[in-house]
Design brief:
- This protein is of the alpha/beta class.
- It has 2 domains: 3-56 and 276-430, Alpha/Beta hydrolase fold, catalytic domain (Rossmann fold, 3-Layer(aba) Sandwich), CATH 3.40.50; 98-206, no CATH class.
- It has 13 helices and 6 strands.
- It has a 6-stranded parallel beta sheet with strand order 2-1-3-4-5-6, with helices on one face.
Length: 432
Amino acid sequence: MPLVFVHGVNVRLGPKYEKEMQQRNQYFVNIFYKLLGRQFSADRVISPYWGDLATNTTSGNPFLPTRKHDAAPAKERPHSGRGEMVGDQLHDHDFDGGSLIDMARTESISKVVDIVIATASEQALDASLEHAEALSELAFSALDLSRRFKSLDEQVEWLEGVVDDAQLLLKIEDELMKDSAVDMKRRKLSLEHMKLAGTWLQARYDKASTLTKDRLMLRTKQLQARINQLRITAKHSVKQVREVRRRTTTHVAAATLTSPVRKLFHDRLFLFLGDSFLYFGQRGTPEAPGPIVKKISDALTQGWEKRTEQDPDLIVVAHSMGANIMCDIASYFRPDQEIDLLITVAGQFPLFADLHMFPGLDSRHRPIPKPPNVKRWINVYDMNDIFGFTAQPMFEDIEDLEFASGRLGITTHADCFKFVSLYEQLAKAVKP
């Protein structure tokens, strides 16, 4: 099962890209393929990089709207080059639901493991292959823990006596140390990274909580002062004062809760639009394919040639814009290229098909047939992901698989491959 991974937008070369690719490959090796009962090595993962062919925008994104009192002169703004935006980091507001122990009492323990493992990978200074392998092995062992509980009540009972995040991480550590099939030295190192990640998460949660409280207190004081002034200096009716309070309170809540989210949304949106316009404008024709199409097409050929009698299937995993590219290649540029399994994650190809952007698809008749050269197509979406779409009911013979990350809709789009539970769900869906 050689695997070709096609990335999406906002991916640029650099240490972070290399680190995330290495960790993702190990998750495929030690979780996805292991759950399928297949022996697999990371050197059989082909990752064509097309970020150098994508869009480049002005540093600092001067076209994004800002409030005047928040905007600093352009010359004073810190440099924000594309190289700093390689991949996506876990953000403070990703953890607005509470601490880890709060999450463990109300959600599956797998979600706690997802966040802690993803943070351990994100924060680790060690970007070596050994660290990536050890962390993926730790994640695989953690899956057994998440499967143990048949109900939330059982999980809450297991948490009895645990009062904070530190105790929760110790309890998880004790469980993961029981796996006798792993290298204990590597396991201890991974657990140390996990504990450091937990400490970092708690600090971020405390900081975010304090910052939000401070902002709300300041805004409330400003609101009260404004209302008091209106009562004293103006002859407003009670109805007018209430209307001012309503409008001001709405503005305060919106400004306090959505300002960081709005900027993050704009950052994601213009990169998605830019790379989409670039791709569709330069994709070329089957006789003269554009540079992005050619690079991905060559990777598919390479993956096809890596097949063996013992490993005869070609799997393609495509994320976001990569899913759109694969839909185009499979239906128009390379209808001769057989693909045993295509997994699209957080893709927009149903939207673009509805806009008749794929010449290889008869999108005026619904449902749209799956390209016959793709034997099986699984489309993964997250209800919280604003950039992810379902294939049904527009397409026939494409299986939709929901991945419920429970995270903020903007960052879950970019971060989904950092969560070990995604690989487990993929394996369950693929396994006969």
